[in-house]
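Notes from hallway chat w/ T.B., transcribed later so I don't forget. T.B. wanted the structure written out for a chain they're using in a teaching module, and asked if we could keep both sequence and structure tokens in one place. Agreed to drop them here.
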Amino acid sequence: ADNVDKDKMQWRSFFDQELYPQMVEKYNLDPEQTFITGLSMGGLGAINIFLDDISRFRAAGSMSGVLDIYHASPNLLDKELSQILGPYTPENPLYDANNPINNLNKVAGSGKLMVISCGYEDYYVKSTLDFSAKCREMKIPHIMLLSPGRHSWIYWDYALVEHLEFFKKILEEANLGF
């Protein structure tokens, strides 16, 4: 999301208007061979970027992501998200607009796949489970990986390898069980 303070870095605009177009030009990105994934807040960002324009990516992933920002830790809401989206109040529409679980309709029916993973001991496991349940309800294909682990690099080192393996299988059009 872009920062509500226009004098601060506008990360989303930077990605959409500068970084992604430069990557397409420099590396000749083919959307059928391009994937996006991220961890923690980056998992939130990766899924939001994917959902906002699914034509740019074959699939997306999130490791320990904040997939329902209403289940974000109080520290994250108060100290980080509120600095980007403004005060956390029911009247602030930016929270709903930037909440991945609220935007699944953008991928429904597309056949695009998401890989979501989280450690059992991670604070965001409930967010991951709720996101998966909403995907199942909307018949959105996704792979959910739950395993031992916390919100840490030990877990993410493991999970990243798993995400890359699934992305490789997608490219190879291997059997993913559905």
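Follow-up for T.B.: The chain has six helices and four strands. Might be a good example for the class.
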